[in-house]
C-alpha cells in the first residue's frame, strides 16, 4: 500500500525505509532517542566536513577552493559556511577573551575625545570677527565669501566642542544616559538628534564596546566587498577555466584561513601575553601568494602580477571602503 512522506508528501512504497525525495525516514516517531541520535549525526556530519576542510586549508593554500570548484562539494564545508564559521568563531573568542575593564583602543575611555584647550577655543570664537578681520572693511566679494565660509567652519567647530564639553561634564557627574540624551538633544530634531544620540550612546558605552561592535560588523562588510574583488581577479585570471563565482569561492576560503590564523594567534596572545597576532600581517599575504600558484598553476611571473594587482586593489580600494563602510554601519546600528 502506497503512502505519503510526512515531510514532503512524496508517494513512497512499503519497502522504502527512507523517502526517495527528501531522505527522511518513512516511519519515525519523535522520541528522545531519535532526537539525540539525529542531533549527534548532524553534528558529526558537520564535524567530518569541518576536519576535511581544516587541515588542507591550513597547509595546502588554494587546494580546497580548487577541488570544490572541480566538483568535490560533499567533502568540504561550503565556502560561505566556512567563511562564516571561522569569522564567527574568531569574534566569539574575541568577545570571551577580551580583558574586561581595560581599554583596547588607547589610554582614554571614549571613542570620541573632546578634551583640549577649551579656553583657546572659546576665545577664538569670541575674537574671530573683531580681532582677525573686520568684514565691513572688505570689498572683494570672493574674499568675503571665503571669510564667511571660514567663519561658519569655526562656528560649527565651536558648537561641536561645546556639545563635547557638556557631554563630558554630564558623564563625569554621573548623569545617566537617558537624562544626558534628553538634555543634549532637547533643541534638536531629525538627523542632528539622531547623530547626537548615537555619539552619546557610544561615549557612555566606551571604546571596548564600540570596537567589539565594529569587529562584529566587519565579516559582513567583507562579504559584501568580495564579489567586487572576485570581478577584479576575473579580469586578470583564466577566464576559460574560472568564472567570477569561482574567484568568489577562492577568496571565501582564503578569508576562512585568515580568520583561522587570527583566531589561533589571538588565543596564543591571550595565554602568553605576547603580540603574535601581528604575524598575521605576513602570514596572510604569503598564503594568498601560494594559493594563487595552486589555483592557477606554476607560471611564476603571472602569479606575481596577479598577487601585486590583488594586493593593490585590496589595500588602495578595498581597505578604505571596508573600513569606512564598517565604521558607518557600526555607528548607525550602535
Low-pLDDT runs of 5+ residues are: 100-108, 115-131
Q: Report the sheet-strand fraction.
A: under 5%
Number of helices: 11
- Structural class, by secondary structure, is mainly alpha
Which series of helices and strands comes N to C? EEHHHHHHHHHHH
Helix content: over 70%
* Strands side by side in the biggest sheet: 1-2
Tally of structural domains: 2
Kindly state the mean pLDDT as a whole number?
Answer: 77
Terminal Cα span = 59 Å
Oligomeric grouping of the chains: single chain
* Major sheet: 2 strands, antiparallel
Describe the global form. Answer: extended
By DSSP, the count of extended strands is 2
Q: What is the radius of gyration computed over CA atoms, rounded to a whole number of angstroms?
A: 29 Å
Give an account of the 3D structure.
- The chain is mostly helical and 334 residues long.
- It folds into 2 domains: 179 residues, no CATH class; 88 residues, no CATH class.
- Helix content is 70%, strand content 1%.
- The longest helix has 34 residues.
- It starts with a strand and ends with a helix.
Topology:
Elements: E1 3-4, E2 11-12, H1 32-59, H2 63-70, H3 79-97, H4 118-132, H5 141-172, H6 177-184, H7 190-205, H8 207-235, H9 244-272, H10 280-296, H11 300-333
Antiparallel strand pairs: 1-2
Helix pairs in contact: 2-9, 3-8, 3-9, 4-5, 6-7, 8-9, 8-11, 9-10, 10-11
